[in-house]
Design goal:
This protein has eleven helices and nine strands. It is an alpha+beta fold. It binds adenosine-5'-triphosphate. GO terms for molecular function: ATP binding; protein kinase activity.
């Protein structure tokens, strides 16, 4: 595979680790996404991320898993690259376009698909450990109703996490990056070994964020500057589930109670969590029609 057969069209995103462009394969005219990481970057992780995609893609269930297909990866000149299926918008983007509120129906449909995706990656031994709305995407065209999870740059095999028996400040700064987000689990902030339940806790915070428009510990915290980080951690770790889920349907409180009850390495009842949220969906008499809040917006902005 030769990266030169792809032409960069436009930048579509970027984060702490790379720049993402839409590209066209010149022979077929098909569009893809390409993630580029400078090879001089201090903490190179793109090729590790590629290995995770490679391992996940070997699985039979991968096709329906809600993870974009990796077409190719490698090194070219000054960059490491991964080429993936091109997806649509991130939920971060869609959330902003919906005036920072999603309806209960939209949140429940997202959560149901995310639980399936997490069950899949956990069953293959991986933890995402960096869940946030910008890593959750919708597909393109006929897959526009499907939810996808991206960005395995900070993912780990939990078997490896278990071997790191205790967090230690000398660990690579990836460890620090994993616990800087407003969506990170409480245990990640206090340096406890992370497991599958930490991803589910982050998903719970994302649901609350979408429903309320913010999280109670967000206040003045700025994740780029790490400003007021200690205050954010204090507020998050001292908040009870009851206060966090105040005024929300009781299923959210039950969701967190269920997660907090289990040990970090215990197998989770994904089905139970899905049934809990599906029960709420039915109770509210919502329809399974693949219509999300953003489908009501006339001109979505890229
Ligand atoms: N396959 C894709 N199709 C379309 N857009 C994509 C795709 N992959 C990534 N993006 C866009 O690029 C953004 C950043 O991607 P990604 O999270 O992989 O980068 P990162 O540098 O690892 O970011 P972070 O700092 O969040 O870890 C996403 O939020 C999304 O908007």
């Amino acid at each position: 595979m030769n990266i030169r057969q792809y032409k960069l069209v436009k930048r579509i995103g970027g984060g702490r680790f790379g720049e993402i462009f839409c590209c066209i394969e010149t022979e077929t005219n098909l569009k893809y996404a390409i993630k580029l990481e400078p090879r001089k970057a201090k903490h190179q992780q793109l090729l590790l991320e590629a290995k995770i995609y490679e391992e996940l893609q070997c699985e039979e269930q991968f096709i329906q898993s809600g993870i974009p297909k990796m077409i190719s990866y490698g090194e070219e000149g000054d960059f490491n690259f991964i080429i993936f299926d091109l997806l649509g918008y991130s939920l971060d983007n869609l959330f902003n376009q919906c005036n920072k509120k999603f309806s209960l129906k939209t949140v429940l449909v997202i959560a149901d698909q995310m639980l399936l995706i997490l069950e899949f990656i956990h069953s293959r031994g991986f933890l995402h450990l960096n869940l946030k709305p910008s890593d959750i995407m919708i597909g393109c065209l006929e897959n526009a109703h499907k939810i996808y999870l991206i960005d395995f740059g900070l993912a780990l095999k939990y078997i490896e996490v278990q071997q790191q028996n205790k967090f230690n400040e000398q660990q690579p700064s990836f460890e620090k990056l994993r616990r800087t987000s407003i969506f990170s689990s409480v245990d990640s902030h206090i340096g406890k070994v992370q497991g599958r339940r930490d991803d589910l806790e982050s998903l719970g915070y994302i649901m609350i964020y979408f429903l309320r428009g913010s999280l109670p510990w967000q206040s003045t915290y700025n994740d780029k500057l790490n400003h007021e980080y200690d205050k954010m951690v204090y507020l998050k770790s001292s908040m009870t589930i009851v206060t966090l889920c105040n005024d929300l349907p009781e299923e959210f409180q039950k969701y967190f109670t269920q997660i907090k009850k289990i040990n970090f390495n215990e197998k989770l009842g994904y089905r139970l969590l899905r049934q809990l949220l599906q029960g709420l969906f039915q109770k509210m008499d919502f329809k399974q029609d693949n219509i999300y809040d953003w489908n009501n917006i006339q001109n979505l902005q890229n």
